[in-house]
Amino acid sequence: MKICLAQAKAVKGNIEVNITNHLQFIHLALEKNAKAIFFPELSLTGYEPKLAGALATKLEDKRLSVFQQMADAHNISIGVGIPIRNLAGIEITMLIFQANKPQLVYAKQQLHTDELPYFVESNQQILLWPDTLKLAPAICYESLQISHAKNAHTLGAKIYLASVAKPEKGINKAYLHYPIIAAQYQMPVLMVNCVGYCDNFQSVGGSSVWDKSGNIIASLDSVREGVLVFDLASKECISAYR
C-alpha cells in the first residue's frame, strides 16, 4: 500500500477554494497509485485559530460529501483537516473518508496553550485500518508529546501519522522528536506539513517520512506544494511538486 502526504497551501478561510485544491492533490495521489492521502492540520480552512468560530462546521456539511464520493469512486482513503463544532465546543479534527464506509473522525487530544481560547480537547485515540496497518493519527502539538505516541503504541499502533501546521522552530523540534519515537516504538513516522502563511507564522513544509529505526527516508522542501508517497512494501518514497 502507498500512502500520500499532501503538502498543501491553504487559502485563508476559504473552504470552497481549498476543497478544489484538495481534489487536485487527490488526483495527483491517484496518478502515483496511492491508496490513502492525508493533508495538514486544518487544511480546509488554513490554520487560523482566531477564525475558528466563524469557520467551524458540522460533520453533515454537504460541501464535504465530495470527499466521500472520491473515496468511493477510486477506492482511496482521504484525511482532511477542518474545525468541527459539537456540544462541547470546537475541535481540531481530521475527517477520514474511506471507500464505502462511514466517515471517521479524529479530534486533537492535546492542545497548545495558545489554542485553548478557541478549541476544546478530545479524549479518544483511533487507529485506521485496525486489523492490518494500525495507523495512529496525531495532530501537530500533541505529536511532539511523548505521551501521545506512547498511548498510540499501547493501543497497537504500527504507523504514526502527524498532520501538522508548523513554522521553522516547530519543524526543527519535529526533526529531533520523530526519529526518537520511531526508534523507541519501532513504527514509521509520517509527517505532513503545510506551506505558506497561516495565523501569525510562515509554515515551512518539510513533510517527511522516517523508518521504524528513526532514519529519515525522504522530505519535501520548505516552500513548494507537493506530494510525498511512501510505499509500505518497499519502504521507498517518491515525491512530486505542483
Give the SSE layout.
Blueprint: E1 2-7, H1 15-31, E2 36-38, H2 52-55, H3 65-74, E3 77-86, E4 89-97, E5 104-107, E6 135-139, H4 146-154, E7 159-163, H5 168-185, E8 189-192, E9 195-198, E10 201-204, E11 208-210, E12 216-219, E13 226-231, E14 236-241
Parallel strand pairs: 1-2, 2-3, 6-7, 7-8
Antiparallel strand pairs: 1-13, 3-4, 4-5, 8-11, 9-10, 11-12, 13-14
Q: What share of residues is helical?
A: 10-25%
Overall structural class, as computed from helix and strand content, comes to: alpha/beta
CATH topology: Nitrilase/N-carbamoyl-D-aminoacid amidohydrolase
The top level CATH class name: Alpha Beta
User: What order do the helices and strands follow?
Assistant: EHEHHEEEEHEHEEEEEEE
Distance between the termini: 23 Å
The figure for the number of domains is: 1
**Main β-sheet, in a few words?**
7 strands, mixed
Quick one: CATH superfamily?
Carbon-nitrogen hydrolase
User: How many strand units?
Assistant: 14
Question: In DSSP terms, counting alpha (H) and pi (I) runs of 4 or more, how many helices?
Answer: 5
So what's the overall shape? globular
